[in-house]
Design goal:
Length: 172
């Protein structure tokens, strides 16, 4: 089931998400809904706070090439356990900040530990777009948005655009 995506500014996007203590069927269903919502948007990542849920849960799939097999990942309680000194710059966007993009510098490679859909602990190293995406989504779990990496003026400008967008959507 597709879920509505919160648009910045929304106080729920700034809250720190709570760790998932026990994997339930409801949480697995939520993860499936998040994947459906992400693919429909379309996006390459989505965090539970973006749909108003306060769980440490993210989904991502950075396979974008036509005809390539999707590689959806569901991560409960993801955490970066190691990061490279080398950085990379990607133009980031966010489903909660539609049509706004900015270059963000992050570690080029990260090692992440998480619990998968079956309750098994996983660890994997990510690089390129996958590294950027997983860091972006984990930031959401900590109440941080990609615009928080920008200058205050640029952040204010984007926030005003989002406030205007929310007013327009409320009128429709």
């Amino acid at each position: 089931m597709k879920r509505p995506i919160l648009i910045h500014p929304d106080p729920r996007l700034k809250k720190v998400a709570a760790p998932v203590a026990d994997l339930s069927d409801e949480l697995r269903e939520l993860a499936d809904d998040m994947l459906e919502t992400m693919y429909d948007a379309p996006g390459i990542g989505l965090a539970a706070p973006q749909i108003g849920m306060g769980h440490r849960l993210i989904v991502l799939d950075c396979v974008k090439e036509e005809g390539e097999t999707p590689r959806p990942l569901i991560m409960f309680n993801p955490e970066v356990i190691a990061k490279s000194d080398k950085t990379s710059v990607y133009e980031e966007g966010c489903l909660s900040i539609p049509e706004q993009y900015a270059e963000v510098t992050r570690p080029a490679e990260v090692e992440v530990r998480w619990i998968d859909r079956d309750g098994k602990e996983q660890t994997q190293t990510f690089d390129h777009l996958w590294a950027t995406c997983v860091q972006h989504e984990i930031d959401h779990l900590d109440g941080k948005l990609f615009i928080d990496y920008l200058t205050p003026m640029r952040r204010q400008m984007i926030t005003r655009k989002m406030q205007k967008l929310k007013r327009e959507r409320a009128r429709d």
